[in-house]
Design brief:
single chain; alpha+beta; 212 residues
């Protein structure tokens, strides 16, 4: 059984839990309480030197960074659960393209919006609304490109779901949950909306959406 060290509500911990569910890989969550700063404890930074979550212990193999963990689990169990990383060279290249799209054209804008609108408020800090407006404006053109891609195929890398699609879920769910003009970013684009409803309703995500 994979030992998952993280915080149940954290975006990155839930991403790893999601992939475990998709791949039918059992895991045991050991809580690292971010609210108490446990991720900065010497015992944790001795393993995860950046003082972040999550990391896994897979029979003595230690790995951190959620996307790296996701790829590892997908490759270790290629014939178990949902196939999430293609092996054909061309399909793999399209997957890598989609994974790059997710980081640079989605998460780079959505993550700081969620930080401003959700995480800052939880810490009693004030939202920088000007920054949110700027980020949201930049995101609109990126989602126009998503609409073009998704009008031609079911998922971001083709007609099969991959890790690249699932990477969107933790921050995308928090973003969409802001409602109003934020949810409208998805809802106003039919192909993007269809894709989002598809991936966000997957049973594996619903199982960990509110906590790993």
């Amino acid at each position: 059984m994979v030992k998952l060290y993280g915080f149940s509500g954290s975006t990155c911990t839930r991403l790893v839990a999601l992939i475990c569910k998709e791949k039918d890989v059992p895991y045991e969550l050991t809580s690292v309480n971010l609210l108490k700063g446990e991720q900065k404890a010497a015992s944790h930074t001795a393993i995860q030197p950046f003082g972040q979550v999550p990391y896994i212990d897979d029979d003595g193999f230690i790995l951190y960074e959620s996307r790296a963990i996701a790829r590892y689990l997908s490759k270790k169990y290629p014939n178990q659960g949902t196939s999430l990383t293609p092996s054909d060279p061309k399909a793999e290249a399209l997957f890598e393209q989609a994974a790059s799209i997710e980081i640079f054209n989605f998460t780079n804008f959505v993550q700081p919006i969620v930080v401003e609108k959700v995480f800052k408020l939880r810490r009693g800090l004030q939202t920088d609304e000007a920054r949110v407006t700027e980020l949201l404006a930049s995101l609109q053109s990126k989602m126009d490109a998503y609409e073009v891609i998704l009008s031609k195929q079911k998922y971001l890398a083709g007609d099969s779901v991959t890790l690249a699609d699932l990477y969107h879920l933790p921050y995308g769910t928090a973003f969409y949950g802001l409602g109003g003009s934020f949810a409208e970013v998805f809802d106003s684009r039919p192909s993007l909306s269809r894709w989002w409803k598809d991936i966000s309703s997957r049973p594996a995500w619903l199982a960990v959406k509110d906590g790993a």
